[in-house]
Automatic annotation (TrEMBL):
Single GO term (MF): oxidoreductase activity, acting on NAD(P)H
Signal sequence extent: none
Gene Ontology terms: cellular component: cytosol; nucleus
This protein's name: Nadph-dependent diflavin oxidoreductase
Presence of keyword RNA-binding: no
Pfam families linked to this entry: Flavodoxin_1
Cell location: Cytoplasm
Amino acid sequence: MVSISNDGQQPTNGNHQNGVILASTNGMENKTRFLILYASQTGNALDAAERVGREAEHRGCPSVVLSMDEFDASSLPYEGTVIFIVSTTGQGDTPDSMKVFWKFLLQRTLSQQWLKGVHYAVFGLGDSGYQKFNKLDKRLSDLGAEPLIERGLGDDQHPSGYEGALDDWLSSLWKVLKKNPNILLREIYVDPAAETLDRPKYKVIYHDADSVQSEFVTAPELESIELQIERARSMCPGKFGRNKHRPHCFLQMV
Ligand SMILES: Cc1cc2nc3c(=O)[nH]c(=O)nc-3n(C[C@H](O)[C@H](O)[C@H](O)COP(=O)(O)O)c2cc1C
């Protein structure tokens, strides 16, 4: 999964110009990847988008996660499947990172067929206390894009927050895509365990004391794998455990 955030890391695929991804400047279409565009004011939509990206990859779909201000909206017709994860801020406003994109989509010169052939799904994050969600879903449909599933709405008022709705919405999305493998032009492999388990965010790396120069790894080699595992379990990412024996491994974000 390629993931780009507002802090501007360069992508490992896609063309890049003035900080904006140009999905197709050479006439090539991006029908075989899963594009996830997010707009977030305080980080929830980013978290949700990364989860969608992880789950897509887990099902065999190459995915790209981009903040909307990193994507050139005029390239949208070249995409095959786009998942939008968007929050609402202010009084029904779009997040700052969506403003340019949204202004582009609202142009009257865009025809009702402009997004013909593009499949999309929208998950909006908001708070039903405000009673105002942004209107991306309707605009995409008005421009000819085809919804894969009904818009999902994550609500701060739900006891589990936006994730209360995201779980079911994602299950529906994978089911629809599984039935329509041509949408992504490749077979989607659905691991039965993946219906309930997300991909782990951490992996444990065991370092050989002689081969690693890391400041985190200073202890002599541990005696057994079991001991290493026990110590790794008690740790936070990048921190040492509290006991005086510093562990010989640490957790790494993946
Ligand atoms: C200042 C502020 C204004 C908000 N305005 C709205 C709103 O107008 N409508 C709505 O549905 N939710 C509103 N929300 C709720 C957010 O959309 C919700 O908390 C969402 O999960 C935030 O996602 P984000 O972290 O990706 O920006 C607002 C939240 C804040 C903090």
